[in-house]
Specification:
Length: about 425
């Protein structure tokens, strides 16, 4: 029998496809229906920006707040010093405190676009687990918290087991990560009455740990909820593209490139992504997903417009759409294309096409760039060019040079 939630939040996220697992759906539903609930998602500060892979859970927090509840974005200023071993094949490089803080500053800009950090009520909270983790006394922590953890059980978690099964090293430092994450939930419950942790389904074991610890130490009833780990219909990890990670900070990925990423969604993913990444009514998402042939492009443009508006604002979304129209429909260069500006020193006596393709971000490596050119996949000013060694000198840049990889990825190169 399908469960029909009473709470707005659970009804919304189930209808839109956000729910993978929940520790006690009916009890959580009752709690959400009865009053304001506080929930958190944790983010380790391993990069200067969040990326599209984080966007699903950011939208989850946004819906949580829109439904009247209080979200916490927990920055892992403490846990980033250890590194989450979940489903990794190697140990994360350890970052220093200055780099961790710089990363947190970059990530906070994105959260402010989706959540309202107003004072009081259901205003979101931005917290940092370094607040309680940095000052822990190791012996007291082992005695008061460590005794509640079974190593046998921790070894059975899929995130750890998969690493050990491949005979890859798992350091004691990383093994402590799951204890620290569980302790986060305990502290948030004690300090802020936080009753729910949410996260991707790869965090299920860590979430259960926190629930068990909090019940043992405080005897409080708390909950866990996970979202599915998304892949695109062609099997790629969500948020990855040929050019690398799809960052959410505008200085790391232009609004045009972000818009274009969503415009390039495959037909089969349009309806699902509209439900997850926009706030359009479900009926409208279904209508757009059902379009056939070239008409499905309307759905892709609306998806790109809506997602870009949420992150970068309506003006940036409109500019990206106008640039795309100019590039694709009129064959122009567009004012907002990703642009590589070379200095006279960098240009020197000339620069090869293969170097331009790599420097502009249209290929990850020189080898990839040469392959792209050799296979006829690159155009220079809308003309196919297959000579990777073709040299460009100052006279070629009297006007910007437009590079196109296939039909959908473009860049301009100019001298500055």
């Amino acid at each position: 029998m399908t469960y029909h939630p009473k709470s707005d939040f659970l009804r919304t996220i189930i209808e839109r496809g956000f729910l993978a697992d929940c520790t006690d759906l009916q009890e959580l539903d009752q709690k959400l229906y009865s009053g304001t609930v506080t929930a958190y998602i944790g983010y380790d500060a391993t990069a200067a920006s969040l990326h599209v892979g984080h966007l699903l859970n950011i939208m989850l927090l946004r819906w949580f707040q829109k439904c009247g509840h209080k979200p916490i974005t927990l920055m892992g200023g403490g846990t980033t010093k250890v590194g989450d071993p979940s489903f990794r094949s190697d140990e994360r490089p350890l970052l220093g405190p200055e780099q961790i803080q710089a990363n947190i500053d970059g990530m906070q800009k994105v959260f402010a676009r989706y959540l309202d950090y107003k004072e009081g009520g259901n205003g979101a909270l931005m917290l940092n687990n370094a607040e309680w983790l940095d000052s822990l006394n190791y012996l007291e922590f082992l005695r008061d918290i460590g005794r509640h953890f079974s190593v046998n059980r921790m070894l059975s978690f899929e995130s750890v087991k998969s690493r050990l099964d491949r005979e890859q090293s798992l350091s004691f430092l990383e093994f402590n990560y799951m204890i620290l994450q569980a302790y986060d939930f305990l502290e948030l419950n004690r300090r802020y009455d936080c009753a729910l942790q949410m996260g991707g389904s790869d965090q299920w074991g860590n979430i259960i740990n926190g629930i068990d610890l909090t019940r043992r130490v405080l005897d409080h009833e708390i909950f866990g909820l996970t979202t599915p780990l998304l892949t695109t219909s062609d099997g790629r990890k969500m948020g990855k593209s040929q050019g690398g990670a799809m960052w959410l900070n505008a200085e790391m990925l232009s609004p045009y490139e972000f818009w274009q990423f969503w415009r390039n969604t495959t037909d089969a993913d349009v309806g699902r992504f509209l439900k997850l990444y926009t706030e359009l009514p479900v009926e409208e998402c279904d209508r757009l997903a059902a379009l056939q042939g070239s008409e499905i492009n309307e759905g892709k443009i609306i998806l790109a417009r809506e997602v870009t508006t949420l992150l970068h604002g309506a003006e940036a979304a409109a500019a990206a759409e106008a640039t795309a129209r100019e590039v694709f429909e009129k064959g122009g260069t567009g004012d907002d294309l990703p642009t590589l500006t070379l200095s006279a020193d960098e240009l020197g006596d000339g620069i090869s096409l293969a170097q331009l393709v790599t420097r502009s971000g249209l290929a990850k490596t020189g080898k990839d760039g040469k392959r792209l050119i050799g296979e006829g996949g690159l155009k220079v000013n809308d003309e196919t060019c297959t000579e990777a060694g073709r040299m460009f000198t100052a006279s070629d840049f009297e006007t910007p040079v437009k590079l196109s990889a296939g039909k959908k990825r473009h860049a301009l190169v100019q001298i500055g």
